[in-house]
Amino acid sequence: MKTKLRSYTTRLVTDNPPTAVPTRAEYIQGELVVTFSDGKVARVQTTDIPALANATESDYADLDASVVGVCLMNDTVDMAVAAQWFYEQAV
Q1: In what order do the strands lie in the sheet with 78-82?
Q2: What is the C-alpha to C-alpha distance for residues 69 and 65, in angstroms, rounded to an integer?
């Protein structure tokens, strides 16, 4: 079930973490597209993540995926979201 991210604070450690990890995160036409090691892909509208309200297209060059989540940190944006939240959005 897709859910809107409501808080800047997201648990990074969970009782039941996904076995798949993010292998790639990219910005495509207003969406964050996160690909996982098991082939699932999460497509999330950037408007669903409040921390991205002021992000410009050039800011997304700093987008990064890791085993704990997806982050975008630079002079304009400070965003980190747990991998599990993205995995719950994946199909």
Answers
A1: 64-65, 69-73, 78-82
A2: 6
Give the tokens for residue 30.
């207003």
Coil, helix or strand at residue 2: coil
Instruction: Give the span between the Cα atoms of 64 and 83, in whole angstroms.
Output: 11
Rounded mean pLDDT of 20-45? 95
Model's pTM, two decimal places? 0.79
Give the Cα-Cα-Cα angle 74, 56, 72 (nearest 5 degrees): 35
Residue with tokens 């979201």: 81
Q: Tell me the C-alpha distance between 82 and 91, whole Å.
A: 17
Q: What is the pLDDT of residue 91?
A: 86
End-to-end Cα distance, the chain: 9
Q: pLDDT class for 23, splitting at 50, 70, 90? A: very high
Q: Which amino acid, one-letter code, is at 24?
A: R
